[in-house]
Amino acid sequence: MTAPDGVRRLLAEGRPLYSFEVFPPRTPQAERTLWRTLRDIENLRPGFVSVTYGAGGSSRDRTTDLAERIAQDTTLSVVAHLTAVGHSVTELRRIVGRYAAAGVRDLLVLRGDPPDDPRGPWTPHPQGLRHASELVRLVRRAGDFGIGVAAFPERHPRSRNWSEDIAHFVAKTRAGADFAITQMFFRADDYFRLRDRLDAAGCTVPVIPEIMPATRFRQIARFAELSGATVPADLAHRLEHARDDAEGHRIGVDHATDLARRLLDNGAPGLHFITLNHTAAALDIYRALGLPEPRRVPAAVGEGARHGVA
Ligand code: FAD
After folding, report:
1. Are 310 and 42 in contact (CB under 8 A)?
2. Angle between helices 188-200 and 162-174 (to 10 degrees)
3. Measured in angstroms, how far is the CA atom of residue 117 from the centroid of ligand 1?
4. Mean of the per-residue pLDDT values for the chain?
């Protein structure tokens, strides 16, 4: 049996793991921005970059294309998100096979939400899967992937109570998940309470907290509504009354830096930064935490340079 690779190996090393989330761009201009962002990220030598999976149609091909390109053309390790939404089991197996062929070693395995109304009723594909745990099982059988799943510091918005939420999370780890990444949250205590609940359930899977820099009031209010995250009233108030974008940026970076510091000081296994394909806020938090400064990578990212993944 070979030693675990990818995210599993990095987590087993026991050092904090820093990683970044990007999404597939829709326009040539957005694609240029993304590749500049990926160059910045690559210079940090992070643990991995994750690529979100769209709600349907062509955005999904953009995810697989982008994950493949990052895996093949950069030094970055990539974690590709995958959801069960709108896919038959046969399609899911094909996508997983495509990732394996492209050298993607880690998947973030999710159920997903209804495409038209993320808070609406969830209807599985008739030949598909109902819960993320079933997709974890499918991926586990399909190959030697590192498997991540979602965790919810304020519990999943659809879970009726904590015991149900924790039981379903534990089912994902029993099905084969190796690590988890949380939903965005803004209060460290929510993360600590989740960890206590998982400890009490005997669940030891590393849970990487997701850091969303809250720099713009409208945007964060919308994200909070969609994700079920609570934005603390004082943070919301300060953002709403920020004089300009620069002040909003400072407020968001300061809040996220304090949150990240508390999490790391209290044993979080790493930080997963949402970038929205721009690095400014994530890099400012990264620097404020005193994490290693960017190093220039000699070969150009996204220009066809092929490196082995370290
Ligand atoms: P599940 O684990 O299946 O849970 C969903 C709900 O069903 C929960 O309430 C759970 O308690 C309940 N449940 C689970 N199992 C059972 C069972 N056996 N019986 C009854 N109830 C059950 N969405 C995207 O579309 N694309 C992305 O790229 C994406 N990336 C994400 C990244 C992160 C880090 C996170 C936290 C979320 C992401 N999401 C993404 C959103 C995610 O798809 C939604 O939050 C979705 O509602 C839940 O997915 P899940 O994998 O947690 O589902």
Report:
1. no
2. 70
3. 14
4. 91
